Amino acid sequence: MNQLLSLVVPVYKEEENIPVFLQTIVPILERHCLQFEVIFTLDPSPDQSEIIIIDSHQKDSRIKCLKFSRRVGQPMAILAGMQYSSGDAVIVMDVDMQDPPELIPSMIEKWNEGFDVVMARRRVREGETWLKLFVTRIGYKMIKKVSDVSIPENTGEFRLMSRRVVNEVVKLKECNGFLRGLVAFVGFRQTTIFFDRPARLHGKSNYNIYLGSLRICFNGIFCFSTYALTLSTQFGFLLAAGSLLFAVLYFILKICGFPFASGNPTIVILVLILGGIQLISIGILGEYIGRIYEEVRERPKFIIDQMWGFK
Q1: Residue 187 pLDDT greater than 60, yes or no
Q2: Pick from 18, 174, 225, 246: CA 20 to 30 A from residue 64's CA?
């Protein structure tokens, strides 16, 4: 069967990694695919990333590039590549060699077995601090507990998707770009393969290892569940019940003639607790309202400045 495989590779300041990536990935694709295209989705970079990609395209027309008018970030860059891809299947992966190209044959094999989504699940994550691993682990646990869709733990954006999955994801109008949640929402037949994630090949990650993980966690919770609103309500009822019990207790103690110290510190504690719960509740509402605001504006997810290899 004459199948076309598309690779979507988001890029920002990756001049050292692009040549090594292409030298590794092209032979693998040539051995296991009849046809393929490599789509670099480029946030405007201050380094030589654009020049290297254009030069590669001139040497090999199967290497293509979408350059955005401004930096849109990895999630939107991935969705843009998926939208412009032509393959019967699409693989999303990073250029820093932390997503091993050697897994591609296994992904294609699973796809040929009838799976629409083949996710790469990490067993080991080299080159990451214990704090980053801890934050990531807690984030996945929270998402798994409260999300309305099942998002496997330790899976990133590295995955293969069939054309019908790609079409359905691209049709979704959400602008949060949380790919692993969107793919889980779409459904179809999905499976995972396991791998040990190596350390980054060159340079430093452009991804904030702490705030980025927190942002992913928030997207998983607020974009795919209303549990946080329910939790806020439950806190309110719990606090009200506790306050009522304290009122009854104080009333009984007052009748029994128990002396209260002037400026009772318990009042201060209760006021602080109440204020904290209120601020948390307002913050949760703000997270949802902010996302609603982003969606109703319906601004374009990305704007293409230039493209190479596309008709």
Answers
A1: yes
A2: 174
